Amino acid sequence: MTVIEANSEAKAIQKVSATAVKHDAPLILFAVTHSSAGGLRELWSDIAEGLALRGYAVGRFALYAPASGDGEGVDWAAWHHIVERPPRSIGATLKLFSRLVKYLRQMRPVAIVTAMPAANVAIPLAVRLAGLPTRVFVTHHSPTHTHNALLDRLDSWTGSLRNVAAVISVSDAVSDSLAHKPGRYRAKRRTIHNALPQSIEQLIDDRRIVQHQDPGCHVVALGRLSYQKNYPMLLSAFARLPGITLEIVGGGEDEADLRSLAKELGIAERVHFAGMMPRIQALDRAARAEIFVQVSRYEGHSLALIEAARLGLPLIVSDIPEQVEAITAADGERCGIAVPLGDVDELARRIATLIDNPMTRAHWSRLARKLALERSHMQMIDRYEQMLVDVARSR
Q1: How many CB atoms within 10 Å of residue 120?
Q2: Which pLDDT tens digit goes with each residue over 250-267?
Q3: CA-based Rg of the chain, rounded to a whole angstrom?
């Protein structure tokens, strides 16, 4: 299906109607700024599909389609795009907003769950201009200091509007980053941690995706090749670890620079850039590793980390609030290793210790599984369902 076909309002309505199992089920929409590859697109699809299986009418839309070459894996049949490309002028932005209002008037959802800064700002305003009783649930998936400053200021205003029912963060650390918001905004805060789709949980737990006796590599990293993921630190650590191999699963704007850095460091033969691949294939590649490393500069609640934990891979992450929370069990036990940002020597030492000591590796593997089993898909869907159903009943 082409982008133009996917943008047809008639097809969008048809897509949503096909999911309505319950009689007169209220329509719930999940929205993002753009549907480029990444954990957020997967998460919204997971939650939407989970609610659809419970009989709700659900739909997914983005303000605009992914940039050329960045739309791999988009299910055009499931995602509606308000416009075909990012707006580059005031006129294009106004056109997008006008089409958004028209789309919402056609769909008349009972609730919209938004993500990404631009969507978080635009959609409450569009709902208000459309004259709809729709309630909006704004979500934050990364700390606000990583957002555009103007959008952050606008979000403080739009998130305080009456049609915004709740402000959801994927971790308490992300919620804490909203401390500078107005009191009316802060009063709406809730935390709902991310989880894997039930199908992925079952694939791993039923041992259809298992760790291999003969690992394909020593260390795996999953995630977009971007500034956020801090891959230069990981590559620099590998320059201190002769004989150890690394596989990076993901694509992104920094790939050429990272390949050049690997060559410059003399580790190109030990680092495999696997590129983008379907989720199941990526999990299979991860299961061939012995350790998972994610030294991101910032995160929300990483799906890749949850996947690695479910696989039982020992976890090494950056010592930042979001990541420390993500590796801490409900009883307060640390189930992963946190390394200070920029401390390449410490990262190399921690990797070497796990590689050289099978018993230590087994210890951290058990803790990773403990962490993963605490937060299930069912619990996450229950939280979203209860929140959304309460709104539907109050209409």
Answers
A1: 27
A2: 999 999 999 999 999 999
A3: 21
